[in-house]
Amino acid sequence: MLKIKSTLMWVLLAVLVSGCSFRFVYNHLDWWTNWYLDDYVTLTDQQQQLFDNEFEQLHLWHRTSQLPVYVQQLKSIKADINGDINAQRVKDNLAQLIQHWQNFLMAAEPKLQPLAFSLSNSQKQQLITAIQENNQDNIDDFENLNEQEWLEERSDEQKDQLKSWFGRLTDEQKDQVTKLSEKYQRSFMPRMAYRQQWTNEFAQLLNGDLPDHQFKFEFYRLFVNGRSLRDEQLNTISDNNSEVFANIFLYMVTTANDKQRKRINKKLDKVIGDLEYLISND
Q1: For a surface tag, which of 56, 171, 173, 222 has the fewest beta carbons within 10 Å of its beta carbon?
Q2: Chunked mean pLDDT (size 10), the chain, 282 residues
Q3: Nearest to 135, CA basis, from 200, 219, 60
Q4: pTM given for the model
Q5: Short-list 51, 31, 198, CA closest to 112
Q6: Backbone phi, then psi, for 102, in 5-degree steps?
């Protein structure tokens, strides 16, 4: 279930990344999701049919009710970029992205809960083991950089992301983004601690042999309100990093030259056009 959430989270965030394949990916989400799901649990034919039917309904709901909301937000972002943008507006848009995700989780939860409840003991173990292995792989892949090395890498990643939207940055912009990026804080270890706690509680739920009504309650708590398991350290770091990003993005918008401004408007128009196409063509 964690991998399903991660996969669909990627799709939601993809509305902010312009790419020629976005329409294709969105229109073939059933294939992508099943491909990821196969790495985590092997469903019976009956379970697979249930999943396919529920996913088709969820996909239709998302296309008809959520994509128009994304379009509206992106048009608002474009207006802000070409008008009087401020750091609070940037943070508000980041918060709105999280709310989009929460809306999706609330819609997906009643469709995935019966499937989770129907898993056999061997399927439950297969799923739990796969999630734990994924967590461990993330830890193993974590580069043990010192603070300065991590900041330099984070700064380079930030400049690459900005370059994809604004085009080539000036030397002055590069220097300022580097300086602002020094305020980023590392979140990997508290984030992995949160993921492990979520995994542990999910494993307890699957192995608890709870009656249906109690299983529904606990599944909703973990699937929809799982962020409540994040500790204060992770929340503080996340808030700080959102603040840093807002300041960096605001700086870039307010210092963008004509060529950079033209590029980001073109990129936003491309994403908006893709979403409007997907809304009208299913």
Answers
A1: 171
A2: 45 46 78 83 94 93 94 93 89 89 93 94 95 88 79 92 94 96 93 94 93 94 94 95 93 96 93 92 74
A3: 200
A4: 0.87
A5: 51
A6: -65, -40
